[in-house]
Every structure is written in structure tokens, then in C-alpha cells.
Design goal:
The chain is α/β, with parallel strands linked by helices. The chain is 33% helix and 19% strand.
Length: 236
Amino acid sequence: MAWTEHDYPDTDALTVAVAERLRTACEAALRTDDTALIALAGGRTPFPVYRRLASANGIDWSRVVALPGDDRCVSREHPASNAAGLRAAFAAAHSLRILPLTADDGDPDASLARARAALAPLHDRMFDAVVLGMGEDAHTASLFPGADALPAAMAEDAGEDAFLIVPNPLPPEAPYPRITLGLARLLRARSRHLIVTGARKREVLRAAQTARDPQRAPISALLHATDAVVHVHWSP
């Protein structure tokens, strides 16, 4: 089994616990390295975790670099931008550096070039923590089942760290192409945290835990990866 489960009575308890794990990961990194490097999911559930983390004592935020695990190809001030959401959630961590994955105007091709250029110097640097979510279609980050670029993004020997993904079909609530970290890059981390809430998503999680089917259920590749334990945090 490549995962460890942590169940909480509600999202408040989940928020407290995951924020503490991220605080510990950052502090451990800063004891041995010049910087801590974290990749963070967007979405309603993780943002309260980040707000709590931003208010934690003892972290030298000037030495922490955060980046979205994926982002929509929109301008960086757009409400759908994960980078904008991270900036707002970490408002209390004034000196935190957030590394965007997209071009200023969100152009997809320019965003892919920008992401790959920004990630290249970090290629051999492990993330100190990765936070991921999961959709009801079993996607994680922007690794969407059915996307043309999914096989390349899921390759464990991928030479690139970022990929342009166009979900098919586009989600009606966010109909945008995406830039996402690939599976291999997400796995190069000292700790991995998957946040899942609600009964329906737990059903999807159970199916992915039962069978590895990365093209239909991309999250299953993360859960079944060799030598990569995932901490699964669930609440109703």
C-alpha cells in the first residue's frame, strides 16, 4: 500500500492537521536547505489550510518558494487563477515567493514555455511538500482523463516537468486549458498530501485504490507509485 489515511470529523479539523504538517515540512527543510519548495493545489478546501499556515509562527517566509501544482490559462488576476488564489490565501506571509506557471495574459503556449523555463532550474530539487486535490472524475492537479496530452504528462520518465492540458470536455465551471506539473515531477517530493472531502469523492478514491488505471483515473498512478507514500486526508 502506497498511502496512509487520515480521517477527520470535519473540514476544520482537516485544515488544522494539514496546515501543521506543512509547517513541519517547511521548518524541516529550512534547517538543512537555504529554501523550502512546496507545490500547492487550488480549490475551496485547501485555501483555508494555506491561510492557517500563513499565520504560523516560526517560518521565515522569505526562504520559502510556493508554486501551483497546476493553473488555468487565464490572466494572473483572473478569479480562476490558482496563483491569484494562493497570493490571497498567503496574504499574511508577506515575503513568500509564489512562482506562477502561466504567462501574464494566460496565453496557453506562452504559459507552457514560461512554466518549463521556470521549472528547469528546479528539476533536480525535490519538493518539500506537495498538496493535491482530486475531482469526481479522478483527476488530480490538471491530469484529466481523456486529455490528448495525458499520456505524456503521466510518463514516469518524462523529461519535462510541465505540460499543457486541454480537458475533454472542458469543465463548464472552468472552461480553460491548463498548465500542470506532470506525474513524475509531483512524485519528486519528500511528502505528498491528498485532500479529499465528501462521500462521493471517497467512493472515487476507493476505486482508484483498488485498481491502477492511470489513463481513466490519473489519481491511481499517484496512489500506486513505487516508493512514494501519499498521505490521504479525508473529511465528510
